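Minimal example, chain plus nicotinamide-adenine-dinucleotide.
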Amino acid sequence: MKIVSTNPGRNYEVIGEVEAASEADVEAAVALARKAQPAWAALSLQERCNKIRSFLKVCEANLEDIAQIMSKEMGKPISSSRDSITQTFEEFEDYMEQAEAALAPNVVFENDSEKHIQTFEPRGVIAAITPWNFPFNNISFQVGQPLIAGNTVVMKPSEEIALFTKLIAELVAQSDLPEGVLVPLVGDGSVGEMLVRQKVDMILFTGSTQTGQKITQIAAERSIPVLTEMGGSAPGIVFEDADIARTIDMLAMARFDNTGQYCDGLKRAIVHKSKYDEVLKTLKDYAQKTKVGDQLQESTKLGPLVAKRQLEKLESQVADALEKGAEVIVGAKQPDGLQGAYYGVTVLTNITPEMRVWHEEVFGPVLPIVTFETEEEAIALANDTEYGLGAYIFTEDIEKYRRVAKQIQAGNIAHNTAWYFSPKTPFGGYKKSGNGRSQGAAGFHEVCQIKVISEEK
Ligand code: NAD
């Protein structure tokens, strides 16, 4: 089966096609990874890191090609694509620095007659299923810690980035990574499903909740661990004492950057009544001066959505809100003069809980706003979601921040900022946003078997 790749910013013009992996290819990939794993794990941490660095060096030498293909296929502005690649190199380096401490054996119990030593062994072969919204970052996010810890990885990125995946496979082959240590596969969900049904030792999944739940069932049948990083609908609470100029910059970044296609993007604004008019006016000004445009132009800050299907889903969510009485402050339509999966920066008010924009994940530049009067009301609105990935709280009162943060059901809470991501910081969700944590020592421990070796004294 061929996967046809199209450019969502140029009216879906075809930019290439790639043969998807067959069942035999998937089996062969897992067999290669299985064969390579013992020798990979037997290398010292330093030796593994050096080989991983050789892959990063090859990527660095091909940075522009990677950035161009990424932007063409999924619509990320070209400058953001380049930045995301250098950021990924830094993330890899950070994981490599953390590894020794995170993976060192340690004594967890000791008495006169015995001591218990906790050790970390790689799990073996890991299947990594990844989405399209941060193509290159997902290599460090899903593959970095597993490889460093001594696992081998068969990775299946989204079908929306098939040409990108093919390029990454070519770059892996040019690096010093031994054959089978990292095997990227091109394919859609059916290839992903073939992969997770193979005899792998763990599944790492980043993508929608719906797919993550299917994969969790498959893992359960095989009694293997699965780490899911799934959808989100992060609340952004703006308290009465928030510094509005700073808050709006952060709020806009957390909602509209990457054209709203962030898993932990700020997807519901919950604004104190006293700040409502000011927030609306400032957001409207922001929206009117923020141009959506061709992702390959250097000046573009917001490109198209990833694909026509994503545009259609977003349009149906907004139409549902309007039918149920939402009011458009700005946007809610395609910008004039552009052809493709473009959607204007949109702010909606008069929101009710029945509206899809409130209770579904909205993956696009659309922000519904509701108001509150008391702290309790703000917390209840923030937690009124089946997701629990991120949450953003804007207040100058640190005591209030701490009190509220404790009561929010989400894995990562941010204070007066849009960006709280760090390779040292565990990342993951409550509720339907996922299970387990990536990054930091917690992320290393997820991709390892914990073995306790007790010694007689
Ligand atoms: P998706 O679930 O449609 O696809 C994700 C991956 O799963 C793709 O590689 C796809 O081919 C594969 N897949 C689909 N069906 C499968 C099956 N039955 N078996 C195995 N693999 C299968 O998600 P998407 O549209 O690519 O990504 C957007 C979603 O990802 C959003 O919900 C977003 O919030 C989420 N996301 C979460 C995080 C996080 O860290 N929590 C990060 C990025 C994106």
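The first helix runs from residue 23 to 42. The chain has a mean pLDDT of 97.
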